[in-house]
Amino acid sequence: MSDTATPATPAIASRLGAEVLGTFWLVFGGCGTVIFAASSGFDFDRVAIALAFGLTVVTGAYAFGHISGAHFNPAVTIGLATAKRFDWKDVPAYVVAQVVGGTVAGAVLLVIAKGMDGFEADGNMATNAYGGDGYSLLAVLIAEVVLTAVFLYVILGATAKAATAGFAGLAIGLCLTLIHLIAIPIDGTSVNPARSLGVAWFGGGDALGDVWLFIVAPIAGAIIAGVTHALIVGEKD
């Protein structure tokens, strides 16, 4: 018998609380950077926005990762379950917690933003979109599927037993930063249904009309990664 006790898995209530807080922080920090910069007339470039999203994941991962695994994203939870790294029975509760966290963040962001005279939520809530004068639905679909799959490949690799301990949060946060650098001009970057839904509720009819794509595409990309990761790299855990 080993002298070192195996740490007990935190209670499900604690894990869900960590997912609510972590997803809140991701949406508040990332989307808040976009919303408040735009509402104040300050022209933030995509590097600053990408760093904001990446830093929320880095800080959230080290704050809450030991409790819940720091998913903060329904696509991540589903992808990990598909890869047999997470128990399917806990998936619904995690997804609900993440959507709640993102939605609370969106509501708080709206209340703060409305403190500025003349602020209009429609079109100014850091929502994701396709079509219009930008990229087509197909282009956005491909980008979101591919980038979410890559995100899951990085997560699965960085959290594997053979990976260097203690660096997963940094690798995953930097990956999300790079994903935003690529995709901000395409659709504002989602790869996370909770991030998209959290602000779409408050962003007007067009935002809610488009949000289905930012639910379906990230989940599809995550499932693809979950199914193929072990087949490609030969690493199962």
From TrEMBL:
One of its GO terms (molecular function) is channel activity. GO terms for cellular component: membrane. The keyword Transferase does not apply. The chain crosses the membrane at residues 20-42, 48-72, 93-115, 135-156, 163-186, 211-233. It is found in: Membrane. Pfam families: MIP. Its main location: membrane. InterPro entries: Aquaporin-like (IPR023271), Aquaporin_transptr (IPR034294), MIP (IPR000425), MIP_CS (IPR022357). PROSITE patterns: MIP. It is a multi-pass membrane protein. The keyword Membrane applies. Keywords: Membrane, Transmembrane, Transmembrane helix, Transport. Belongs to the MIP/aquaporin (TC 1.A.8) family. This is Aquaporin Z. It comes from Nocardioides marmoriginsengisoli.
